[in-house]
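Posting for a labmate who doesn't have an account.
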Amino acid sequence: MMSQLISPPLKGLPTPASFFLTFSFLLCMISKLVRAAHKKGSNIILIQELFEGYYFCQAQSEDFFQRAKPYKGHPTILSMQKLAKELGVVIPVSFFEEANNAHYNSIAMIDADGADLGLYRKSHIPDGPGYQEKFYFNPGDTGFRVFQTKFAKIGIAICWDQWFPEAARAMVLQGAEILLYPTAIGSEPQDQGLDSRDHWKRVMQGHAGANLVPLVASNRIGKEIIQTEHGNSEITFYGNSFIAGPTGEIVAAADDKEEAVLVAKFDLEKIKSKRHGWGVFRDRRPDLYKVLLTLDGSNPSL
């Protein structure tokens, strides 16, 4: 079976004055990129993390909880379901989820017929200057999930999850044929000299190579300035969205300045044969990995 992937970074708005995007303007931007990807032949289309507006986690503000909405009946998900069905494409939809008094950084997986296949909630929640997600999001409770879509078994995780090899391995162990990582990452407000983009890419290239699966990372671009309790916070998101092949090689990449639509084509059956023949899943020793169930490695026995 052939599968094509798309990773479009989306520009930040030119000013923080209108933080809350109008729904119609948002859908126009997103739909344009999705249609462009479809026109290029893509059938699995990945948009960035929290694409409904600015990355609000630069600040700790109760006002931004207004962006959260329940999973069922979420207007963005409903709109993406219609678009996915119209075009016959798979679209993972990132959104800020409200679940009673809990809040999650979540993904709804929409299949090519518009069906909602289920929910993934971000497992690893960062907390640092400019990326204060613990103020808004509970740790996800879905576990790592794999979704059987029309075109492939997809494992999807979100941004900070991408730094954890355990997450990638858990998804591929469950049968994932492709790994997807919607993302929002850029400069560090506390250290403008710190540029993590190459490190960020190499880590995920390692996930692809270690598990012998293609991998797609979609990031945003542009400068976003948010008013915080300590003054303005600024992040320049560095884009560099990319598609990696099953040995970790980069087969398509965007830059840090322009919107882009990236497409790559993979023969998943051929990759499956290579993965089986390489032996990394045959030779695993789960009985030796109990230390991974601890925080400090000091008492791995169960």
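Reply:
Got it, the structure tokens are right above this. The radius of gyration is 19 Å.
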